[in-house]
Design a protein that fits this description.
The protein has one helix and eight strands, in the order H-E-E-E-E-E-E-E-E. It is α+β, with helices and mostly antiparallel strands. It has a single domain, classed as Sortase (Sortase, Chain: A). The chain has an eight-stranded mixed barrel. This is Sortase A.
């Protein structure tokens, strides 16, 4: 009997410890669940609101919903914007494969907090501007903050990638996608694949590069899509045919 009485306090203490540990685990689980909700849902909500506000604030005129005849498309070099201060929004991206209503602001710079986390697409400022010789290179989130490049892996060779500034359209065509390590910065070289330190030859082509994290929910690698320039047209002339033609399998 004495031994039994002495064991009760020890059992009671063990039960209390087990209860406290259980409550802590439940609390941690709830906090983790709330973090996931914030990371995957609420950041989308806030970034989408910020993005819409940016589009409205630009005050750009809507383009005519007509297609300019191919014979009327300009044949000369496209107009190229001058340097843009970091943080300023200067263009918009349209990708028919991502949906007919896909329209995302492009800002100068790739700072996570001030640019990417606000739902914008970031432009690597050391790379070419839209329509310029070289490689117009962009970055955006894939799983959070309105995830502008969520569907980057769905892009297929031949898909249109369209950039608009206030006065001009620049139409590119996707050529290839690849997965690289974050250190492989040659993907945004003036000629994609040109290694750092290599001599840059005379530029004769206009490229576009989209970059995002890979795999989904990880930053271990980068998913890259390259494209080449097809043509440009003034906004006043209408809308590129690629934006008025549904894409089979698009969103």
């Amino acid at each position: 009997m004495t031994r039994s009485r002495r064991s009760k306090p020890h059992q009671s203490l063990a039960l209390r410890i087990t209860g406290v540990v259980g409550e802590l685990m439940i609390t941690v689980g709830v906090l983790l669940a709330l973090f996931v909700v914030w990371q995957l849902w609420w950041t989308d909500v806030t970034a989408a609101r910020a993005r819409e506000a940016t589009l409205v604030a630009q005050g750009w005129d809507a383009p005519p919903l007509t297609v300019a005849p191919a014979a009327d498309l300009p044949t000369g070099d496209p107009p190229v914007l001058g340097p843009v201060p970091v943080g300023d929004v200067f263009a918009r991206l349209y990708v028919p494969r991502f949906g007919a209503d896909y329209e995302v602001p492009i800002a100068s710079g790739v700072d996570k907090r001030t640019i990417l986390d606000t739902g914008n697409i970031g432009h690597y400022p050391e790379t070419a501007m839209p329509g310029d010789l070289g490689n117009f290179s962009l970055a955006a989130h894939r799983t959070t903050y309105s995830k502008p490049f969520n569907q980057i892996a769905d892009l297929q060779p031949g898909d249109a990638i369209v950039v608009r500034t206030e006065d001009a359209w620049y139409v590119y065509e996707a050529t290839e996608s690849l997965i690289v390590m974050p250190s492989q910065v040659e993907v945004i070289s003036p000629i994609p694949g040109l290694l750092p330190g290599e001599e840059i030859p005379e530029l004769t082509e206009r490229y576009i590069t989209l970059t995002s994290c890979h795999p989904m929910f990880s930053a271990r690698q980068r998913f890259i899509t390259h494209g080449v320039f097809k043509y440009w047209m003034p906004v006043s002339a209408g809308t590129p045919a690629e934006l008025l033609t549904p894409v089979e399998g698009g969103q």
